[in-house]
Amino acid sequence: CKILRCNSEYVAATLHLRGPDRGAAFCTALRSYSLCTRRTARTCRGDLAFHSAVHGIEDLMIQNNCSKEGPTAPPRPRPPAPNPPGFESLDICDYERSFLYKHGRPPSFQHCAAFGDPHIRTFHDDFHTCRVEGSWPLLDNDYLFVQATSSPVAKGSNATVTSKLTIIFKNMKECIDQKVYQAELDNLPAAFQDGSVNGGARPGGSSLAIRERSPGRHVEIRAGYIGTTIAVRQAGRQLSFSIRAAEEVAGAFTEEQDLQLCVGGCPRSQRMSRSPRGRGRVPAETAQALCREMLPVEDVYFQSCVFDVVTSGDANFTMAAHGALEDARLFLPNAEKLHIFQ
To answer: Where in the chain is the domain with CATH 3.40.1000.10?
Structure first.
């Protein structure tokens, strides 16, 4: 199946075409792309990338008023030897770039986070404090599975913290082998479970990469093939998770995959009030003073910080809320939504 070659020839032919005046040349490139897919159709039956390309061409022909009849460009010469093997697949494994070519605009992004007690900020900017114990899925879609395991923050406490995170990057034929990342308290590895630091030997393997931002404290995983970045942190005796995901990727799930804390928040029966009640391990005024040093705006991140410090007695929880806010600052597509007030 030569669909990757068709894709790369199309991208190369349209790289310099921009704006409303691209008309005839763009239509010529699309007809050439279509001809290339027809020539490889017999060997590409059942190939997802092939069928996706065929539908994409039809949509673009309609959007740009291109006639199916007309001139096509001669096939482009093969790239010279210095190009690494797998040159053709690189565009397929760059989600943002291929989305831009297909739709004429950059993709939209969404942000979700789980930190502290755990507190969940959903893709839709809802904010819940949960008493979930055991293992719960944060994400479960066609590309990613993320599971958080929680345990009590202290003996006899209702509040829980995330003590283990499992992230599965599902196999994507052109780009990556399936990869599993697992973090536990005091064990934040800078590698996947198989010891690798990227998506494997496939041509687009480098489109999944892991790097250590701060040894034992902060790891970042970039999944360029699905337009997604994940941050995993440890602050005190808890793990936190933040993600910036392409909207199309975040929404790629079925009705059976309906329990995802990043999508629906925590179930009603598992939600807690963040108002400090009863006797905590630290007076509320002390916790507020500690949290105010790191979080001057008294939003839900500040409230979460106060709740966690009062409940646990551990001042390190100020770092959990602060880290989550910093991730939100980086990952949120709309800076005006950074602070949530409840």
So the answer is: 109-337
Q: Tokens 């910080």 map to which residue?
A: 305
pLDDT in tens, 8-41: 888 888 877 766 667 788 899 999 999 998 998 8
pTM of the model: 0.73
Q: Which homologous superfamily does the CATH classification assign to the domain defined by 109-337?
A: Mog1/PsbP, alpha/beta/alpha sandwich (3.40.1000.10)
**Which stretches does DSSP call E strand in the chain?**
109-115, 119-121, 127-130, 134-140, 144-152, 160-169, 179-184, 208-214, 218-223, 228-235, 238-246, 271-272
Beta bridge partner(s), residue 233: 218, 240
**Helices (DSSP H) in the chain: which residue ranges?**
3-14, 23-39, 48-63, 95-103, 247-250, 261-264, 284-294, 300-312, 317-331
